[in-house]
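thought: fold this chain, then report.
action: predict
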Amino acid sequence: MDRSGSWEYTLLIAGALQSGIIDHLSEHTAIAAEVATACNLDTRATGLTLASLADLDIANSSIPTPSAVQLTQVEYGLSAEARASLVDEDSPSFSRYVILHRADMIRRWLEIPEVLESGKPVEQFTDETKVLNFYGAMTANGRARAGSAIERLVELVPGAKTAVDLGGATGVYSVEMAKRGLKTTLVDLPSTVARVENDLLKQGVAVYASDFFESMPEGPFDIALAAGVTHIYGPQENIDLFTNVRDILNPKAGRIAIVDFIRGESPRADLFAINMLVHTKTGSTWTRQDYERWLADAGFQEPDFIDLDGHNHLIVAEVLNQTS
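observation:
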């Protein structure tokens, strides 16, 4: 049975990562007492955790299903699959930060009763480790769909030469656009841009540090991308965002492109709306009709909706008032 999506699995693997067990096993084959000593952990707790990791194929064990007497004799190492997903950052299946961020979110979802009483989200992450987990998870999740999304987008806008990536975070989508020859600018808050600027400049992506509700880079751009952005905001904020976008697009054929869940069509949309309840003031997931109405109000033609992966949609709309 695949238990990788369960809360138990998530918290166990996150605990093994945070305590140093996974990284130790990636470098050493060891018995529980040796792992406990190296990581400054309790031996009994370490032994039980290692046995469970072996049952989940995260660790290899020298004695399958050891008895109580054998527990202290079992040698453990990290499985090849776990090494690829939890240690090797160059692996396509690397998901270390996805798991750590999911564990952080589980702990925050425990505050739903307080959120229901107050109507206010929980406080934003300030702990640097949790912030890094968040950025790492966003990068991994973005990589899973960015290539196909941008490939479809450039097919829809074949003559595009310039693009702006709004709320682009670590720049996964920006890099994909730059790879395809688009002169690309990433826009995000100064605190985010400071983390990614040097790396993005090396990959040919310009950066613009700003709250995009307050200022935008000077256009015109052929494409304005908002990937994983609209679920953060409520209806009026999204209309305002789309209106600001229209003003920096090429008036002849500029296009806005949105990547997000569609409520009523994406299987995860309903639960993700609760994630936005916990983490944002006005965010949620939105229906196809919501996007059609907001884009029309902001001055765009009727949008196209492209299913990317059964979960996320690419929404593309051209500016309405074209000039000759």
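thought: worth noting. The domain at 142-318 is CATH 3.40.50.150 (Rossmann fold).
final: tokens above.
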